[in-house]
Design brief:
single chain
Length: about 150
């Protein structure tokens, strides 16, 4: 009998579908499609069942966070600029029952001051910044290592 893989939602907010072409000096040259493949393949190697979603719409992102809350599903979240502007995304993160790891491709603390505020971070078990797409793999690795043993804050 094989153990069931831990389910993880990797959620990406506005503009992340433009990866690879949007400000590659800041966000790197990896496309969103390549990021999806990296997360799914990397997650499988770690014993995780990873589904990657991206939306330009705040409400859709919130609905996915509610789905994760209702299902006890771990989340890796890059909410993009909504991280810094959306109380509603922060509130949706607050109701998660499984671990949340926030990821930022760039080092938000080396950028504009408005990016230093996060409505997500207070609800995350950890925040990974500045490692590009490798940050997603780091988040998945942590979730795999702590699967079933960590409660959300």
């Amino acid at each position: 009998m094989t153990a069931q893989a831990t389910r993880v939602l990797v959620l990406n907010g506005p503009n992340l579908g433009r990866l690879g072409g949007r400000d590659p000096d800041v966000y790197g040259s990896t496309t969103h499609e390549e990021l999806v493949a990296l997360c799914v393949r990397g997650g499988a190697d770690l014993g995780l069942d990873v589904e990657v979603r991206q939306s330009e719409h705040e409400g859709e992102l919130i609905s996915w966070l509610h789905e994760a809350a209702d299902g006890g599903i771990a989340v890796v979240l890059n909410a993009g600029a909504l991280t810094h502007t959306s109380l509603t995304v922060g509130d949706a993160c607050a109701i998660l029952g499984a671990p949340l790891v926030a990821v930022h491709l760039s080092n938000i603390f080396a950028r504009e001051s408005f990016r230093h505020r996060s409505y997500v971070s207070a609800h995350a078990v950890g925040v990974i910044v500045g490692f590009g797409v490798e940050g997603y793999v780091l988040a998945l690795s942590w979730l795999s290592a702590h699967s079933g043993s960590v409660d959300a804050p």
